[in-house]
Design goal:
about 0% strand; mainly alpha; elongated; single chain
């Protein structure tokens, strides 16, 4: 790719990142092109579909989240690795409002530009889940697809103005439900006598 073409492409991506952060993934491609001061044909030459634009925009984040799963797998306990990755994955997907809807659809759509990245991300989470399950730290009646769905659901909560203040609390509820020892630990904490002040 010529230097000027790469510069145009990078500029379009930077503008798209701002527009999607402000308006969500349904922002008009025509609006992105206008804001980037390029023609729609130029934008479509670089990114023929909305999914192609998002894949280019999110590729680094997909790679980082996948790499992080491997690092956590090697450096943390199974339950800590799973919850840390889940928390970071939810936080990342909330940066671009509505992206989880496209990611969930892309899992099933092999023609989507997001498909390969989403499948790789789901597999990374599934490995952390399987490790926690093998260690007896996570319930065994869920799989990587369920975990990916929970990421989407928790990110959706953060997108809803009336529910966003409850998102952290609900994340803790979901994480506790995934971990087999979390409920018993919480119950034990509740049973302990509290120190008088």
């Amino acid at each position: 790719m010529r230097a000027d073409a790469r510069k145009n492409r990078d500029h379009v991506l930077a503008v798209a990142a701002t527009a999607i952060t402000e308006q969500g993934v349904d922002v008009s491609l025509r609006d992105i092109a206008r804001r980037a001061d390029v023609g729609l044909a130029t934008l479509l030459r670089h990114f023929p579909t909305r999914e192609a634009l998002l894949e280019a925009l999110l590729r680094t984040s997909f790679d980082e989240m996948t790499a992080q799963a491997g690092e956590l797998d090697a450096s943390s306990s199974p339950e800590d690795a799973l919850v840390s990755w889940l928390r970071d994955c939810v936080a990342w997907t909330t940066e671009y409002r509505g992206v989880t809807v496209l990611m969930a659809a892309a899992i099933e759509d092999t023609e989507s530009a997001l498909h390969a990245s989403c499948v790789t991300l789901r597999a990374a989470g599934a490995r952390l889940l399987a490790r926690a399950q093998a260690a007896g730290a996570a319930r065994t009646d869920i799989d990587g697809t369920d975990l990916f769905a929970l990421v989407a659901a928790l990110a959706w909560l953060s997108d809803q103005p009336s529910l966003a203040p409850r998102a952290d609390h609900l994340f803790e509820v979901v994480a506790s439900a995934i971990l087999t020892n979390a409920a018993s630990t919480d119950a034990e904490e509740e049973r302990r006598p509290r120190a008088r002040s």
